[in-house]
Amino acid sequence: MSRTLTDIQAPISLEMKEFEKKFRQLMKSKVILLDKIMGYIVKRKGKQMRPMFVFLSAGVTGTITESTYRGAALIELLHTATLVHDDVVDDANYRRGFFSINALWKNKIAVLVGDYLLSRGLLLSVDHGDFDLLKLVSQAVREMSEGELLQMEKAKNLDITEDIYFDIIRQKTASLIASCCAVGSTSAGADQAAVTRMTRFGEKIGMAFQIKDDLFDYGSTQIGKPLGIDIREKKMTLPLIYSLRNAPSNERNRIKKMVRNNNHRRKSVQQVIDFVKISGGIDYAHQVMQKFVDEALEILQEFKASAYKESLQQMVDFTISRNK
Length: 324
Description:
It is a single chain. The protein is mostly helical and 324 residues long. The chain has a single domain (15-307), classed as Farnesyl Diphosphate Synthase. The protein contains 15 helices and 2 strands. It has helices at residues 5-8, 13-26, 32-43, 49-61, 66-90, 101-128, 131-155, 162-187, 192-215, 229-232, 238-245, 249-261, 266-278, 281-300, 307-321, and strands at 94-95, 98-99. It has a two-stranded antiparallel sheet. α11 packs across α13 (266-278).
């Protein structure tokens, strides 16, 4: 039976409430405009999956400490900064069903807000000497940027192989969830072996999470992500990569031409979606996603039984059963 995030959060419900209180306080500013924008960011927070990974990883490997709260806040600050900057780059007007910062306050202010969030996270770590946590999260932000740039570079020629695709999603998505698990276990005083295992666990979940996200492109219009958005943006994802690899050369060239030149026409996007479904790309992506899930659960078995471990197992299930 699939559990809700509220159910999964049960072992850390008190910590999450305390974290929200601490995070709201951290976001306050004496500059009126900045304080207003920070309040808006706090109000539109998403599922809080990243802080959950931090606290549950800490619980599985040791004891939740004040350092755990700061680690979760650091990840939220730096990740939110990248999202604010992403919306400027993509000229996006919405984020999680809310207006984006750049839509409400324009690009110049949005870029400065992203810079402020980055500096807030850096100072939070430096002021408390959390250099180990700062290093983990900074590495993830670097990888996220590299992954996005690699994807943009490859989108020009539509020449992404499966290996390159895995490199991209490992950097742009899995690195952040891996850093959540690494920060949680490090803050709890776990030894290096346990931190390494939790990092690998987070990476596997991150890979499965992104493949699930890519599969939404081929689903119904009832989901949170618009149908065919990746195709319109010329993003080569696993279902399409597999389908092209196994298609006759004339069919492969026809579909690539359609993605390259007619990617904004609804009829062309639907033809690409139909091609992928007929070619078995959806089934293949599901199989690969399940492989990452099985590997993540295998790593988790190495830790002793606890309510935190049970919730992490449920988080794995939630990752692949979510509908947005």
